[in-house]
Specification:
This protein is of the alpha/beta class and 275 residues long. Helices cover 47% and strands 20% of the residues.
Length: 275
């Protein structure tokens, strides 16, 4: 799989080892316009601290699926867990190799294609479940987790589908189907937590940034090229117009009101049945 350049840009710009929404303790008291970059980084730190509190005491070794650039893995290692990491992304693999010098095993593969050489006490899917095909993902999880072991998922799932082509539906798994498939493969849901409200300030803050800086910049650049380089502007509009429009449409994912209309951001802890 080629490098995820958006992820690379994000990690090098934000300068945070974490690639998730962040967890806000008192979201209703926040003034969105005043959220700073430092506060976003601190919210991301709270996210993994809160998520790790769901890990059962008997867990010793963990497979971090969709490991990003290692923020969660590093946190868990410092907590005393033995951690392996998995991702299909070359950039993430490079980061792990440089940081851990081979001391953390990194599987460069999609989880659906993963052939586990050993079993784990727990698999962590922190904002990666939505990228994994449901059926195939649970099938691999069953092979990769010890009997009586766990899968801890923290991600958004849609619970409402109005038949539209809204990006909030496109970019998430159906919650009911996800939970039903877990049962099919012998996993029991033993704990859940709805953290939707605690994660929405990250979206609200990002939307403020887009409205305040990104949209005006795009509008200025477009007008500048139309006025000064009409031929080049027309050429790129014809070649890239649809792709740009599609990417701009995806910015609707930053609308927290629509997010809550269609989706929930959940923590699910599943236990694999003993055979």
């Amino acid at each position: 799989m080629p490098i995820d350049h958006v992820l690379k840009l994000y990690s090098e710009t934000i300068r945070s080892p974490y690639l998730h929404y962040g967890f806000w303790d008192e979201p209703s008291s926040l003034i969105v316009d005043d959220i700073t970059l430092d506060e976003i980084v601190k919210a991301q730190e709270r996210y993994i601290d809160h998520l790790s509190s769901f890990i059962p005491d008997e867990v010793k070794n963990i497979l971090d699926v969709g490991a990003g650039i290692g923020g969660n893995s590093d946190f868990l290692i410092k907590k005393g867990y033995t951690v392996d990491a998995l991702s299909p992304d070359e950039y993430q693999q490079k980061i792990f190799q440089e940081k851990y010098k081979g001391n953390v095993h990194f599987y460069k593969t999609k989880f659906e294609d993963f052939v586990p050489p050993k079993q784990y006490d727990l698999i962590l899917e922190s904002e990666s479940a939505c990228y994994i095909k449901i059926e195939e993902g649970w099938k691999v999880a069953k092979e990769a987790i010890v009997d009586g072991g766990y899968l801890l998922a923290s991600d958004y799932f849609y619970f409402f589908n109005d038949g539209s082509s809204d990006w909030h539906i496109k970019a998430a798994h159906n919650e009911e189907k996800y939970l039903e498939t877990a049962k099919k493969y012998g996993f029991t849901l033993i704990k859940e937590f709805d953290q939707t409200d605690n994660t929405m300030p990250t979206l609200d803050g990002a939307k403020v940034f887009v409205d305040r800086f990104l949209h005006p910049t795009i509008e200025f650049s477009s007008n500048y090229f139309i006025l000064n380089y009409p031929f080049i502007s027309k050429f790129f509009s014809k070649i890239l117009g649809k792709k740009i429009d599609s990417k701009l449409e995806q910015l609707s994912l930053l609308n927290s009101k629509d997010f809550k209309k269609y989706k929930r951001y959940m923590i699910y802890l599943f236990k694999k049945e003993t055979t």
